[in-house]
Design brief:
Order of helices and strands: EHEHEHEHEHEHEHEHH
Strand content: 15-25%
Largest sheet: 8 strands, parallel
Number of helices: 9
Helix content: 25-40%
Number of domains: 1
Structural class: alpha/beta
Number of strands: 8
Radius of gyration: 17 Å
Distance between the termini: 12 Å
CATH topology: TIM Barrel
Length: 265
């Protein structure tokens, strides 16, 4: 059983001391391919280099997270544009809107989001999307551009059934993380994850964030890592009344199609 983690922040400094061991542990449990998330100018460069160092195992995205939207200058735009010519870069993002934290003003977030969607159109690449507490503006910006975008995934979806149905109606792919394993705030996802068609569902860890709270025994640290994608798989499979093997196969195939990855076979 092989898995693809479509969202791991492996450039995070919490992995600096054991990044190779983290990847080995992931491979040992079947997480054999990963998409590394770029979310700032620095992390874009770092994940691209990691992907270059491990061809066939790692790929990367290039973008600016809404938290960093005020840093989205013309120079950063050109930097991302240049990276999109690299074969290891398989999507634009992480980009979108986040009105929950508002680390950057909403108007700056919207401008950065629009400019990254323009790059996705220009390069015919999929987009790796972030949205939190901003569904209306997110959809309003995204909807008119969708005909010119190849594909789009709502990364780390945590929203309501209404929001999920709206995104599915827009033909978005959906990424599910360990949020579904959180008994405090993620139980609603168990009730609606079965609404996602097999060919629209992907799974991810968002490591080092969102450690699955259902893990037993509990890990010694709160750092999430790609090996724990197996826990997300188990919880998603149970909620969808499918076997883990079936969900592993369908989500891996969907990720291959979405990111234009070579087939594992």
């Amino acid at each position: 059983m092989q898995l693809i983690d479509i969202g791991a922040n492996l450039a995070h400094n919490s992995f600096d001391d054991d990044r190779d061991a983290v990847l080995e542990r992931a491979s040992d449990v079947g997480v054999t391919r990963l998409i590394l998330t770029g979310s700032s100018e620095d992390s874009n460069r770092e994940v691209l280099q990691l992907a270059k160092d491990r061809p066939g195992q790692l790929w990367s995205t290039a973008g600016v997270h809404p938290h960093h939207a005020t840093d989205y200058t013309d120079e950063v735009h050109l930097s991302i544009q240049a990276m999109l010519n690299e074969s290891e870069v398989v999507a634009v993002g992480e980009c979108g809107l986040d009105y929950f934290r508002n680390f950057s003003p909403a108007d700056a977030q919207r401008v950065a989001f629009e400019r990254q969607l323009e790059l996705a159109e220009q390069f015919a690449l999929p987009v790796f999307l972030h949205q939190r507490d901003a569904q209306k503006d997110f959809v309003d910006i995204l909807r008119p551009r969708l005909p010119n975008l190849s594909r789009a995934v709502a990364h780390c979806f945590t929203g309501s059934e209404t929001e999920l149905r709206e995104l599915l109606d827009l033909d978005l792919y959906i990424g599910i993380t360990g949020w579904i394993c959180d008994e405090r705030r993620g139980t609603h996802l168990k009730d609606i994850v079965a609404l996602i068609p097999d060919d629209r569902l992907m799974i991810e860890t968002d490591a080092p964030y969102l450690l699955p709270r259902s893990l037993r025994p509990k890990p010694k640290t709160r750092r999430n890592e790609p090996a724990w994608l197996t826990e997300v798989l188990q919880v998603v499979a149970e909620a969808r009344c499918q076997s883990p093997e079936e969900v592993a196969a369908t989500t891996s195939k969907t990720a291959e199609v979405f990111f234009s990855l070579p087939s594992a076979s």
